Amino acid sequence: MLRDKNLIPLSHQHQHALALCVRIDRASPVAGADLQEWQLEIARHFESEIRIHFATEEEVLFPATRKFRELTSVVEELISEHGELRVMFESAIDGKLSAEDLRTFANRLANHIRKEERHLFERLQQLMSPEDLTALGQKLNRALENVVPTCTVPNRKSQPRGAR
I want to staple 163 with a disulfide (CB 3.0 to 4.6 A). Which of 78, 129, 154, 159 is the partner? Predict the structure, then answer.
């Protein structure tokens, strides 16, 4: 199903985060000497985009789903995953992720995004009226207006091995 235009800003941010996950996966196992650069990149991504993205989902998107009982469990899972991912982002900010933690982080973030896109967004598009989707889109746009889109250019140490 095509993504409704009102959810596209969140989907674009999902694409940015998935690109980071793919790069981490391709670079794994990350050498110990490169861990700090990867963690700095994750921290920059969190500060520039994901922190506001999570807050927008929790304050705007998820409350809009409350009237659809069938979405309650997936939203509860997503909120729980936000908490787990925040802990991992904070560990990256503090420089505490191991190479295995980095790979686990990328897998968890990618799975979380896919759950939002494939389950929540798809079903929400089917359940919400066009008018409700438009109203939701306006709220999302206001909440995301201060986000600077992340287009992270890998530094030498966070490039996939074959690209160095």
Answer: 159
